[in-house]
Amino acid sequence: MAQAEIRLDPFGDVSRETKLLARRDKALGVALKAIGAPHIRRRPGGFEALFRIIVEQQVSVPSAQAIWKRCNEGVAVSDCEAVRALGIDGLRALGLSTPKARYVDALSAAASSGAFDFEALSAMDDAQAHERLVALKGIGPWTAGIYLLFCEGRVDIWPPGDVALQYAYGRASGGEGKVDGKLLDAKSEGWAPYRGLAAHILWTYYAHLRGRTPI
Fold this sequence. Notes:
Oligomer: single chain
Distance between the termini: 26 Å
Structural class: mainly alpha
Helix content: 55-70%
Largest sheet: none
């Protein structure tokens, strides 16, 4: 995490910052030139958001969308007490794997009991918020990073091990496939204090490569 945080609205004009990243890294410049501007993903925060991100762990976008659709059809996904009432078996019946069902069950218990307060995250710095999230069962660095990027609009968070970012950077660097994940995670340190913006550039470029509209 960065020692000094930048207060920047990522949903506003970030052209100066993205151009700075493009000058700092040739591959980011290639990606930015291809997309024009990054699509900044934005989601409301809270229990439902983290529930959804757990569903999205290590599965394709179509698979995640299908499972999330079943979840919405089977339970009020924003109601942590309703989700808690399903239990692990009920969550598995909605399409979640057993580990993910356990993670969501633990999350719903923490949220419904007040042991985890989503609103308190916004008052924490990046390191504190990240540490608070990864203390939850099943919430690793990638999941915590995605939540802080999409739901809190943090600009200096990097989600380690993200395969789409690895592929996008590899292609932007002139390769045919993804780069080594550990090397990319290390390289991202040089993009502080705008690592999150770099991630959004690469995600948008990944969608461009796939011929998809960014989501």
